[in-house]
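Schema walkthrough. Field components (list of strings):
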Amino acid sequence: MFKTFPKGGIHPPENKLTASKPIVTLPLPGTVTIPVSQHIGAPATPTVAKGDTVKTGQVIATAKGFVSANIHSPVSGKVSKVEAVADTTGYKQMAVVIDVEGDEWADGIDRSPALVKEISMTREQIIERCKECGLVGLGGATFPTYIKMTVPEGKKCDMIIINGVECEPYLTSDHRLMVEKGNEVLTGVTIIMKALGVAKAIIGIEGNKPDAIEYLSGLSKDYTGITVQPLKVKYPQGGEKQLIKSCTGREVPSGGLPLDVGVVVQNVGTALAVYEAVQKNKPLIERVVTITGKSVINPGNFLVRIGTPVSVLIEAAGGMPDDTGKVVNGGPMMGKALAITGVPVTKGTSGIVIFPAAESQREEILPCIRCGKCSSVCAMGLEPWLLAAVSEKAMFEKAEGEKITDCMECGACSYTCPAKRPLLDYIRLGKATVIRMARERVMK
Amino acid sequence: MNNLLNVSPSPHQHSSETTRKLMYGVVFALLPALAASVYYFGTGAIIVTLTSVVSCVAVEYLIQKFVLKVKPSVSDGSAVVTGLLLAFNVPSNLPLFIIVIGAVISIGVAKMTFGGLGNNPFNPALVGRVFLLISFPVKMTSWPVPTGFKTGYADAVTGATPLGILSEGVKNGETVSALMEKIPSHLQMFYGHMGGSMGEVAAGALILGGIYMIWKKIITWHIPVTVLLTVAVFTGILWQADPSKFADPVFHLLTGGVMLGAIFMATDYVTSPMTPKGMIIYAIGIGVITVLIRTWGAYPEGVSFAILIMNAFVPLLNMYIKPARFGKEVKHG
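Field assembly_structure (string):
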């Protein structure tokens, strides 16, 4: 039975060019650049200085504050500088640059591929280990994982949902993980279940990944409490609120969190990282990244050390195509366009999509013809035409009343608009202003 | 790398749907009805359609180029749709200068004065049609009767429409069953074999166009189905109450402008509500007003007025009928 969420949604061309490409380990680059802020929350504080020698897996920046994450060296070598460098957002921020020398790992990390299913750690130890290992959500939002393993006072959690939806077109890194590392992912899920003290986990996977559904469904029989829920292909099903609705029918209230309906959502990549951290003591220093695009010669899924320049990945995929017009960090619907390709892969980089010039420019903006298609595709039940119009006219109180902060910026409205209006651009402006206004009200 | 990369906010891909494709989709959906019109009314249908489309496009182009001094946007196809719909709403023997006046009113007054595509509160083609109906009442109600596609523009034979026969007859005290003898059978009316505006007669062809538009997701079912259902239910109740005074629902669905109005005029994006709930309220309003005018009004037909009246409520419907927000009803699992 394929389930889905009832409201809105679109089905853009899937373009999963790399769905059948096995994960390939990328050779180590010459230098890596590791920003100290690769997560939501406060940047970590660097603990190394220029000239220091570091080992793979060694902490090079420690978490600062509650919402933050440790950063580990993904390579061994010598720190060549600690300074502000442009990252994937285009802004400069503090980063540790390391010249790679060999690949010498820190002590205590189990690098053997052997599967360890037995979980010996207690709840507290698991949470502590995830914190130490710098785990963050690998679906893209990069929220520190250990926080999501602790249920706050007054809230209840009765199940976890594992996000294997990968609803963004082109991207296949989660798909490959599920197919190639099924047991590790499921063990990771079991660990998260233990940490949260829940007996039930649902893995939501869209129907365009039948091999993953079949494989994990078969494997899940060996685990307690884990079921696979096939989902109808529909964007933005990977959105937390939509995924919960699809899998359980529960609706997270406006302005609320998944915990308000007793659910915690984790990405399949995060589940694997949890497995590696808890069972193998391996910090988050590498991840799978899809490099793809219609003109890319050798698109694929690569296991990449954090800090590897995007340009190195593009070279591994056959080099930058001649007709390139845009390079997107992330998927085509929510990813960010890169201005330069020298920026490093971070914990949140799920893919790099290269668009030909012909597909990289926006079309002429025509007047709104009030067709209402934007409202009909909005998975949050908002009216994008109205939100965009009031934001454009700086009527931010009105925008707030129309629930602009419920917008998750999935881009379905802009995608659908036949007049090619930049709806989401205006909505982002309005949303940011409304959030700032609300914050100022609290301050007063 | 020498060439610079494009940088813009997400999303980085867009659907292939465009305003122009939607408009030409409507044009395509109108073709079966146009073909039927030519089949029944002959050359006049072609001449009227061409005149209307060319004048609508020309008026928009001239106003944009010389009055507003902006880049003309006639290629978006909206003026073509208005031109076609205006032609569909007039008799096939209408003098050409009247059509040109209709085009000037439709595009010039009803559309461009409000700011062009997307900003007009009333359906342009209907404003033009009603203006002509009031200004040229005789010419606008001299309906040609179907005489075959060989009929020349000038030799159309005029007669009353079924609705006209019914309205006139009931006023003179004749019973509906007696009047039905003078009117083509329901099946003939379904094919379009009756007098009327050139594009409104062939219900079958219009339904075909409607199904195409729903299939291609140009429109949703809400407005056409609700208008037709409302008309059927309302006239059905009246018919049940007194079959000698009121005609049956099928007659009402097949005659006059109900099909054309429900499928093509009321569904105009710009002048119809944006939420399904709003669309249904709007469509019920159109159905009810149409039947009221047909049954008790001065005109035998009221679809145009009904749509224009409900157009006026659209801003209100858009303001107060909101889609159900996600997460509004809090359900604790």
